[in-house]
Specification:
single chain, about 425 residues, alpha/beta, Aspartate Aminotransferase, domain 1, 2 domains, 3-stranded antiparallel sheet
Length: about 425
């Protein structure tokens, strides 16, 4: 009799892991209704009114939570990265070092500015941007470095900050995955010149769509403010315009929702950390699906993904795709991140860049660690599932153990299927 669910056996989790996302209650309704009934749905007017708005409150509270001095809300995380690049002085023709393993925006946000992304590889153990690869990608044309804390696991900021300072380059931390993460007791996003966050629907803190840029310099905040608010100066009249810019203001209805959701998020971080600590211990005993390494410098970990690395050899050559299919059959929803290194997307493979940009001939770019991680090894659980009840959540480990114990059943079936397909050809 088959034991694996994919072959007709019983599921480890017959009903899957059930977690509502986003999680909301009457406090969210009350926060929204307060702004709704005020009739002031935008974050606008004088600088004093903006500071008193729901967005203004959130900017102060969230920036402080991440140990930054200033924050500025924007419509989404994509605009947040672009705004940070503009405030950092990036212009057409400049090179920007970007991560290979991330969502496409970590690299593509430079393109509207006419800047040229140059990819740096990830560390094979942590999957985070590698300091040596970043430094190797720097050229005389480089004007900024963008890193991502992939999945919410902080990159090695000790080394990366040193590289940025050595080359006198602004560092932009893309923290779209890492609301709440800390490095050495200090929030990510506060180490670089700018830190950017996303509040899109799937993120650990959400208002449907939204973002924020944090920084520690009033001057940097002013540069961002002017660009996001139609070129107005924060010290001048409402109908005085000084700079070429755009309108990147977030509505106050979204600001209201962020304030109420932020209260929940700060509690949810602790639940996720406790659940994943228990799961990591269980998975390490089983072997073959390795969580990212423990690092004492990571003092708080927010999540977008709980990341693991799949070792096909531990499962007798079973591919990651077949493993994920078997896990899904057992009732465990697990993904593979974004599936490929950013430079492999058609956007970059089809892009013609002048040959003088030697690091941006994308068909020749080599980021082997990112390619292998994205294509073969990375397995990821979405942050919402980390809020499941502990006993239910740990059944993920039971499913992994079940597949490993009965992998012969699956490998044999896959081999038979391949032989049958070969005969038909």
């Amino acid at each position: 009799m088959a034991k694996l669910a994919i072959k007709g056996g019983k599921k480890v989790l017959p009903n899957g892991i059930k977690v509502k996302w986003p999680q909301f209650d009457k406090s969210d309704e009350q926060s929204l209704l307060k702004v709704f009934r005020s009739g002031v749905w935008w974050r606008g007017g004088t600088i004093e009114l903006q500071a008193a708005s729901a967005c203004g409150k959130f900017e102060r509270d969230f920036a402080a939570y991440q140990n930054a001095k200033f924050g500025l809300c924007v419509p989404n995380g994509t605009i947040a990265v672009e705004l940070a690049l503009r405030a950092a002085g990036v212009k057409a023709g400049d090179e920007v070092v970007v991560p290979a393993l991330s969502f496409v925006v970590s690299a593509s946000a430079a393109l509207p500015l006419g800047a040229i992304p140059v990819f740096a590889d990830c560390d094979p153990k942590t999957l985070q941007p590698d300091a040596d690869s970043i430094e190797a990608a720097i050229s005389p044309r480089t004007t900024a470095i963008v890193i991502v804390h992939f999945g919410g696991y902080p990159a090695d900021l000790d080394r990366i900050v040193k590289v940025a300072r050595k080359h006198k380059l602004p560092l932009i931390e893309d923290c779209a995955h890492s609301q709440g993460s800390q490095w050495r007791g200090k929030g990510v996003g506060s180490y670089g010149q700018f830190g950017t966050f996303s509040f899109q629907q799937s993120k650990a803190l959400t208002c449907g769509e939204g973002g924020i840029v944090v920084c520690n310099s009033r001057d940097d905040w002013g540069k961002m403010y002017r660009f996001h608010n139609l070129g107005r100066l924060e010290t001048q009249g409402f109908y005085d315009f000084y700079e070429v810019s755009s309108n990147y203001r977030l509505t106050d209805l979204q600001g209201a929702l962020l304030n109420s959701q932020f209260v929940k998020m700060k509690k949810q971080v602790n639940v996720k950390m406790a659940n994943t600590k228990a799961l990591s211990a269980a998975l390490r005993k089983i072997g073959g699906l390795e969580p990212l390494p423990e690092d004492k410098r990571i003092t708080r970990r927010g999540y977008y993904y709980y990341c693991m690395q799949y070792d096909a050899d531990e499962f007798k050559g079973l591919s990651r795709a077949d493993f994920l299919e078997a896990m899904a059959a057992e009732g465990v929803t697990m993904g593979r991140g974004y599936g490929r290194s950013i430079h492999e997307y058609p956007l970059f493979q089809n892009m013609k860049v002048p040959t003088k940009y030697a690091g941006a001939q994308y068909k020749k770019v080599e980021c082997p660690n990112a390619v292998k991680a994205a294509g073969e090894r990375l397995c990821a659980i979405h942050q919402a599932f980390l809020l499941a009840e502990r006993s239910q959540f740990l059944k993920i480990a039971d499913a992994v153990a079940k597949i490993k114990e009965n992998v012969d059943e699956l490998v044999k079936a896959k081999s038979t299927a391949r032989k049958a397909t070969a005969k038909k050809k």
